[in-house]
């Protein structure tokens, strides 16, 4: 099951004011949007549901659909064509269409050896600089770090994170914070996958290579938790060269840890 179809993710989306609708195993998120009307989001469903009754009952004006990684192109196009007779269908992705996955079942030494030389050196420098990383439940400190790292409008990047934390912690989430407090990562665990959900570091933290050390500690944490893979949750997708140029910087950072690219379908 894709994370966006999980019951715990649905609980979080509901806490943000969306109505959760379900047909079989498929969860959908509905919200009335002023002016534009009702929006129905369907993210990576394993099967394509018959939503005719939902469209009528909720007066849906727009359906935003993102295909499952194994979705058949023909079936998907036919489904979209059928729904488009009743409302607007948006097929642009809310979620990243490309990510990087790291196998964390290998021994720690093997995982570390797959880093680029620059990343291995950065980990050693961070340790030499006296930076340490510990697990924490201090969501307020994490939000403070993330807001500071994201600039004047950093609060936008952490909207709803306190509610997210209350729902996912402790079974499905943890926080890694550096000491001194200069950076952190919010990790999510679901279906044997650890997700690099949100991360941030101050300017001083970046100078001391805390982001690289945090990823290394996150990989070890994922392994201790019994996860099989580590998902970086999005990088720049070269199939869409005109979009998300601002992702190129963190994409280069993430590529240094030896992950393999995984592409979601774009139809």
Write the layout of secondary structure elements.
Blueprint: H1 7-15, E1 19-23, E2 26-33, E3 37-43, H2 52-57, E4 60-66, H3 73-83, E5 88-90, E6 98-103, H4 108-113, H5 117-128, E7 132-136, H6 139-149, H7 154-157, H8 161-168, E8 173-179, E9 183-190, E10 193-201, H9 203-207, H10 210-224, E11 229-231, H11 248-255, E12 260-263
Parallel strand pairs: 3-4, 4-5, 10-11
Antiparallel strand pairs: 1-2, 2-3, 6-11, 6-12, 7-8, 8-9, 9-10
Helix pairs in contact: 1-8, 5-10
Explain this structure to me?
By secondary structure, this protein is of the alpha+beta class. It folds into 2 domains: 3-90, no CATH class; 98-263, 3-Layer(aba) Sandwich (Aminopeptidase). The chain contains 11 helices and 12 strands. The chain has helices spanning 7-15, 52-57, 73-83, 108-113, 117-128, 139-149, 154-157, 161-168, 203-207, 210-224, 248-255, and strands at 19-23, 26-33, 37-43, 60-66, 88-90, 98-103, 132-136, 173-179, 183-190, 193-201, 229-231, 260-263. The strands form 2 sheets. A 7-stranded mixed β-sheet has the order 7-8-9-10-11-6-12. It has a 5-stranded mixed β-sheet with strand order 1-2-3-4-5. A hairpin with a 3-residue loop joins strand 2 and strand 3.
Distance between the termini: 21 Å
Q: How would you classify the helix and strand content by structural class?
A: alpha+beta
Strand content: 25-35%
- Shape estimate: globular
Task: Give the CATH architecture of the largest domain.
Answer: 3-Layer(aba) Sandwich
Order of neighbouring strands in the sheet with most strands: 7-8-9-10-11-6-12
Chain-averaged pLDDT: 94
What name does CATH use for the topology of the largest domain? Aminopeptidase
Summarize the biggest pleated sheet: 7 strands, mixed
In CATH, the homologous superfamily of the largest domain goes by the name: Gcn5-related N-acetyltransferase (GNAT)
Helix content: 25-40%
Question: With helices defined by DSSP (H or I, 4 residues minimum), what is the helix count?
Answer: 11
Number of strands: 12
Computed over alpha carbons, the radius of gyration is 20 Å
Pattern of helices and strands = HEEEHEHEEHHEHHHEEEHHEHE
